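Please, is this right?
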Amino acid sequence: MVTMEQKKAYDRVMRVVNGSEEGFFFRYGHGGCSKIFIYNLMSAKVRSRGKIVLTVASSGIAPLLLINGRIAHSRFKILITVDEYSTYNIRQGSLLAKLLIKIDLIIWDEAPMLSRYCYEALDICLRDIITHASIANCERPFRGNVVVLGGDFRQILPIITRGSRQDIVHATINSSYLWEFAEVM
């Protein structure tokens, strides 16, 4: 059973994926509110139309529950320690780069667990490898690709060694320059 709020979020993302719009969404919800069900529904619908979806999660059991889910560090070659200068080890012309050029949707669960620098590095990576995109998309987050992040800020936040509360809050995705583009659902 899907609630009206879930259906509204699903329909919004599907409109963007099927249209010519770009979109960056954050699906906020506490544990057990069927976020993974909605992600799998989105993923199945997009794949049924012959499009490509990458489903990842920051850690834990979530990748096992996602259709073709993987740990984000594995999929995107994220370094263990990230900072504002981190980049992904994805070379232009590699198989992963070719895959990223063709994707129609990225779904990333448990997003608040990782540092904002992971998402900023993905943004930079996509800007670097997707060179054929239109000029209009060059200033859009993730080079105009549709990205759905999700999670709960009341659960585990990024771990900052010897960090203060302020350091931890500064490391979350909602402290990133990308957040101003996010449509929170």
